[in-house]
Amino acid sequence: MNASAYSRMIRAAAGLAVLLAIGASACEEPETSIRLTSRERVQIDTIATRQIDSIRLVMDSVCINDYPGIMHSALDSLLELRRKEEEKLRARIKRELQQQ
Predict the structure, then answer these.
(1) What is the pLDDT of residues 73-82, one digit of tens each?
(2) Which of 50, 68, 93, 100 lies 20 to 30 Å (CA to CA) from residue 30?
(3) Which of 25, 19, 24, 26 is nearest to 55 (CA)?
């Protein structure tokens, strides 16, 4: 295997590792038994770190842009929850007063 093919294989493995880490679901996947040398692990870690750092910048910018909408939605949800709690409490107090 020449150096170029080896490098592509390492990059592909690192890309796959990043995609699996980001898109991991709650489902358990069967374990695979891949043996990597320490050099391969270092290369994969280096590539993955670079890719994660570049993705982090994009994710941060998305969060910054979406923050007002996310905050508004969260606030609306909390207000709705508190309104429902207040309605239940008022109904319970009303029932208790009627039973007296």
Answers:
(1) 889 999 999 9
(2) 50
(3) 19
